[in-house]
Structure formats: C-alpha cells, structure tokens
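Budget justification aside, the reviewers requested a transparent look at the raw inputs and outputs of the sequence design task funded under Objective 1. We therefore reproduce one unedited record. The lines immediately below are the structure tokens for a 122-residue chain.
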C-alpha cells in the first residue's frame, strides 16, 4: 500500500484513540508500506507551519524509517502531469496518485481527488 499525506497527518495529529487505532491497523495490514517523496515534503512543510523544525524532522524521520520511500522519476512526473491536467487536481495529489498507479498499489487516503487508484480508508 502507498500511504498518502493525509494518512500521516491524521496519525500525527489525531486526538481520537479510535481513529489512531483504525489507521495503525491499516499499516499493520500492509506487507510493504510505501510513501512518496512528495509526502515527505508535504509533512515536513505542514509541520513547519504548525509546529517547529524539530517536530518536522521527527515526523519525516519516522516516515523514512518505517516506509519504503518512492522518488518521483520522469515516468511518474509525466503521468502525474496528465492526471493533474485531466482531473484538475493539485500537483502533489497527482504525483502521489501516479506513484500508486505506477506501482499498482492501493492508496491509503481519504482524499476524494484519488479517483484513478484503489483507495483504502475512505
């Protein structure tokens, strides 16, 4: 499974034990958990805006340690550009969705933009 930015943000900021347990259960079911390098960027940036650099480093350190990070290559970039244009969605969402599509993985997200891949957690 490819874990999208909104999954991590929910895990890192949830105040609900039930939500956290549900999200961690999804991670437990993943044979190999993947995350896009775009997600690393988004989590770092969002955390800098709401917390500080030490928390941002801690969060992305957790992602880098526990997930296989997939970098955006030329093929993913082209597919993402086509999706972004066709669906009129943000670049980051398109690149993450293109990554899931390229790896033929379901995407763990509650983001309604992710229409071109199987979704988990909706």
């Amino acid at each position: 499974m490819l874990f999208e930015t909104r999954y991590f943000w929910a895990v890192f900021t949830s105040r609900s034990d039930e939500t956290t347990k549900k999200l961690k259960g999804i991670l437990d079911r993943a044979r190999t958990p993947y995350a896009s390098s775009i997600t690393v960027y988004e989590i770092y940036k969002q955390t800098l805006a709401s917390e500080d650099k030490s928390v941002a480093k801690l969060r992305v350190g957790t992602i880098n340690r526990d997930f296989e990070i997939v970098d955006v290559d030329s093929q993913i970039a082209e597919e993402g550009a086509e999706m972004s244009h066709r669906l009129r969605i943000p670049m980051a969402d398109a690149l993450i969705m293109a990554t899931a599509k390229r790896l033929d993985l379901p995407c763990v997200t509650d983001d309604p933009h992710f229409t071109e891949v199987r979704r988990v957690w909706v």
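The first strand starts at residue 2 and ends at 3. The chain has one domain: 2-120. Computational costs for records of this kind are itemized in the attached budget.
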